[in-house]
Structures are given as structure tokens and as C-alpha cells.
Amino acid sequence: MKKILVFIFLFSAIIAVGQEKNSSFRFALVTDTHIGNPNNDIDLRRTVADINAQDDIDFVIHSGDVTEFGSDEELALAKSILDGLNKPLYILPGNHDANWSESGTNSFLRIFGAETFAFEHKGFLFVGLASGPNMRMGPGQIPRENLSWFFNELKKIDTDTPIIYVNHYPMDNGLNNWFEVMDALRPYNVKLMLCGHGHANKEFHFEGVNAAMCRANLRAKEAFGGYTILTVTPDSIQLQERLVSGVTKAPWLSYAIASRPQWVSDAPRPDYSINAANPQVSEVWSVQEASDMGSGMFLSGDKLVYTNTAGEIKAANAANGKTIWTYKTDGKIYSTPTVQNQTVWCASSDSYLYGIDLRNGKQRFRLKNNKAVVASPAYADHKIMVAGSDGHCRAWDVRNGKLAWDFDSVKNFVVTRPLVKDGVIFFGSWGNEFYALDIATGKSRWIWHNGQSNRMFSPAQVVPVSTFGRIYLASPDRYMTVLDEKTGQVIWRHSDPEQRARESISLSEDGRTVYAKTMDGNILAVDASVPERKVKWISSGEDMGYELTPTPVVEKNGIVYAPTDKGLIYAFRASDGAFLWKYRVSSSLINMILPTDKGELYVSAMDGRLVKLSVRTSATGK
Fold first, then answer.
1. Confidence (pLDDT) at 8
2. Closest CA to 420 of 433, 437, 432
3. Which long-range contacts link 527-533 to residues 24+ away (Cβ below 8 Å)?
């Protein structure tokens, strides 16, 4: 009798599991709420109330752009509204949450608990990844640490498990590393890919996989906002637009899901074959970090100091790339380290500025700020200075770690590498302002405002340069601006619709030319020896295509090296801008190109790739 009862129990359990896997369910996709813009909080509150009134919605996914600027205040407001849901919520950051984040995206993790998700519901695996770009303007990029996690999650499931994949971005080359996700998913039974970002309903097929972009939550010019309801049955997935007025529209898209996806066999991938065309450039060594790298490097003797978004400051042997020591902080790092008197100075989004012994990686100083720090420190006159996300720029005495001064009037937050010159520290902020502070006292020498109201146009990402008593800037408003170094008065300010200069600039080795990379993929050489705008040359031979990375170009030994947001380095002759060669080190945004007098290039890329290249003299165009 007992055996019969056990058999009946097991049989019933098998039936129940089978029924669950074959049962229908509904869920809601909310996206692009952009909390922080006027009235968007009202739209989200209406959506929460409307979802709560529907008992047949099992859970909610938010696919990103939760906020407009990723600020702590915006994130807290969004969380307070979303906490009103009476159903499970799974949420991802979008580009607006990541690119302008005052916390280096740490606050999203702290407030929402994660920036990825993976869960099972009625036999389906739902998995979502962040989209980036984190802290640097450019194409989207799934953080390396997200990918490492994702690959491990896939190992846990059977390849027949039906998968619904979610990202803020479409799964195409709008994401620099889209192909890593697609290649990992090829053995699996992917039923649907979902995204937001485009604020519209649109059908997609990514390399043979069914996909959909869904409407924004915003009402825009309509009376009501809305979201998407997805109905999953054993045979199909239907998408319907739901307005918060209570109207559910007819399905705008339906996919059959009985069969596996028909993957495209010849999907495009980043091309590394171009490297073979220039044998004068060769890789000496490379390192692949398990997380992103969000900053530049500092070369001190035989040690190369760099960081990653796992919160690590590292010193590597410059000859072979082997790690000498690692120091772990408690936040992601987007600060480029500097070295002074055997001390490595670097800030972390955990709110501290660290002083680390270059020789052994031991902590010397841990200096507190009131919020995350995503800017880079600068040294002068026995002071280490850094501007945080709390509206302050502080200086400490490097001999004892005591606070020397505190300038408390920075508008919004700072993310750049500042310029130090003649007793003044210069930097811009995401508050449309550019500052000149006296290094001795911390007092303002002058503050320049660019006249814009939208903070996206701020001179924040540009690494400023100075020569002939003039400060040069380039900003997302597509203006090059030249300021008097002593007074902050505008000498000239120009926007060229044919050569749209933006953030990426540098100074020539002789100090007589300012180089600016344009959004159109050219290098503009401006004569810095004269007080008016005078273009010496525009690069020729090959352009870099549409290009946004704010990473500075750099000149060394007669060659201008230009970084791109797709992992390519372009080389141009400094004398006339003629194209020389290009070389791919990654598929992602390049953080820094650090050349040496020995024909070496150290290059860090956002996807965690660190590379040392050798450039023979014949490749410099001399």
C-alpha cells in the first residue's frame, strides 16, 4: 500500500511540474521611466497603481533608464515608487543610470541590490544584464563582471530550457560586446530578447533570435503613459501595449515559440585581421581582467599602476604585465591613479582617496569624502587634491594626511583628470561649470559657466590643456572653448558643424598645437600659438567613423594616437595629419593610450583588457 501511495505522489508531482511548465502566464515590462525629469514620477506612480490592480500579472521587469542621470536622489525616488508594487520586481540599469552616475553606479547596486537578474518562472529562465556605458560616453557595453556572472549562470541550466533575455539595449553593435552574449547563448533555447532604449514598439530579429523593443513608460505628448504586458503560452508569446488609463491594446507582436531559434551562421564580429596589415605594431603582452577597467594608468619606473571596477588598485611589471601587488577598495574605481614620492594616489567610489605604497601595495592613507569619488587626483606643492561627488574639492597634505583646504562650491560632480599649472588646479563638472582653484588656499580664482541649462552639455569629461596662457576645452555641446588662464574670460568659442569637436583633446609635445578628435572621426589640429582659431590641418587618408569617446588623443615622437570607442587605435602623422595605421586591441572604449620614449604603448580598454604594444620607428611616419 505504501508503495502505491509513493507512486501516486511521485506521479502527481511529475504531472504538477509538467503542468506548471506548460501553463500560461503574464508579466509586465516597464522601461525608460527617466525619473528626475518633470512629471515622470507621476507616470511611474500611475503605472505601479495600474499593475497592482491586475491580479493576473505575475511579476514586473524594469529594463533600464530608471532615472535621467543616475543620481542618488533620483534613484531613491524611483525606489520609493517601485516599492509600491505588490508583485516581484526585477530591475536593470540603463545608459542614463550608468553614464552620468555620481556614485560610479554603486548607488544602483546599493539601492536595488543588484544590476543583473536570473530567475526561473514556470519553466522559463529570465536573465538580464546591465548595458552601460559606465561613466564614459560611447556605445553601450555590458560590464565584464556581468558577463562573467552570466556565463556561470548559463552553466547551471540545460540547453533546452526556454530563455527570455533582457537588456536595456538592442542586442546589436550598439553594444560594443553584444557578440559575447550572442555567442554564449547560441547553444541555448532562447525564445525572446527584450529591450527598451528606443522609446517605441519595434520588432527585431537578432542573429535569428526573435526580439522586441518596447515603449517607454512616459506619456510624452499623450494623455497617459504605459507599459507592455507579455502573455506567455506553451505555443506563443504576445506583446500588448497597456495604457494606465485602463486600456489594453490589441497585440502588436506575437511570436511562435514551439521550435528553437534559427541562428544566423555568418553574424558579423569585430575584425582583428586589420592588425596583420601593419606588422610594425605588435603586442608585447596583454591582461584580461575579470571586471571592467574604468580609468587610465600611471607608469612609474618598472611598474604600471592601473585599476578595475572590482575596486582593485594594481601594480604590474611593465615588462611582462605580471601582477606585483593588489590593493582592494570597497567600491568601483573610475579614477586614474597618480604616483608621487613612492605613493600611489587613487580614489574609489567607496568615497575614499587612497595613498598606497608603490613598493609593496600597503595602505599609507585613507582619506574620507562625503560621497563617492569618480574623478582623478592631482598632486602639487605637497598637496594631493581630488573633487568628489559631494560638491567639494579637497586638498590634503601628503606628509601627514591632514586636510589642507576644502572648496565646497562645486556644482554637481566631477569625473575628469584635472590640470595643474602655476599654482592653480583646473577642472570641469557636470554642472556646466569650469573651475580654477588656488592650490595654496583652495579659494576660487575664477569660475566659468558655459551658458547651458542642460547638464549633458557640461565640460565635465574633457581633460583640459593649457599653453600660451590659454585653457582649451571641448564639450558635448560641440564647442571648442578657449579661456584666459588668469581670468577665465572667453578668448574664443567655436562650434563647427562640419568638424564637431567633442571632449577628446590634447596638447602637442612642443605646446604649439591643440589636437581635437571630432564626432565625425577626424583629428583637428589647431594652432595654439595664436589667440584666434586657426586650423593647421584636418586628418586625411582614413577617418575613424562616428566617434564619441572622451579619452584624450596623445602625441609622441611625431605621431598622434587617437583612441576610439570600439577598441581601435588610429595613428596620424603629427606634421600634416596623414593617416598611418590602425590597430585593434579590444571591441570596447579605450580609456587611455600611454606612450613611452621607447616606442611602447600601454593601452587600457573598458572591457578589462590591458595591452602593451611595440611600435617600430618605421610605423611613426618619420
1. 42
2. 437
3. 528/467, 528/468, 528/470, 528/472, 529/468, 531/468, 531/470, 531/482, 531/491, 531/492, 532/492, 533/480, 533/482, 533/492, 533/494
Phi and psi angles of residue 236, each rounded to the nearest 5 degrees, phi first: -155, 165
pLDDT per position as a tens digit, 267-292: 999 999 999 988 999 999 999 999 99
Assign domain 24-256 to its CATH superfamily. Metallo-dependent phosphatases (3.60.21.10)
CA–CA distance, 116 with 451 (Å, rounded to integer): 38
**Residue-level pLDDT at 137:** 85
Contact in structure between 427 and 434 (CB atoms under 8 Å): yes
Per-residue pLDDT tens over the stretch 116-138: 999 999 999 999 999 999 888 88
For the chain, the distance separating the N- and C-terminal CA atoms, rounded to the nearest angstrom, is 93
CA dihedral 522, 527, 528, 532 (to 10 degrees): -110
Residue in the block written with cell 502566464: 25
What average pLDDT does the segment 380-391 reach?
97
> For the chain, how big is the Rg over CA atoms in Å?
26
User: Does an H or E element contain 570, and which?
Assistant: strand 568-573
Q: What is the pTM of this model?
A: 0.93
Instruction: Please give the C-alpha separations between residue 481 and each of 102, 279, 476, 492, 493, in angstroms, as whole numbers.
Output: 25, 39, 12, 6, 4
Four-point Cα dihedral 273, 308, 355, 304, nearest 10: -20
CB 184 within 8 A of CB 154: yes
Higher pLDDT, 249 or 6: 249
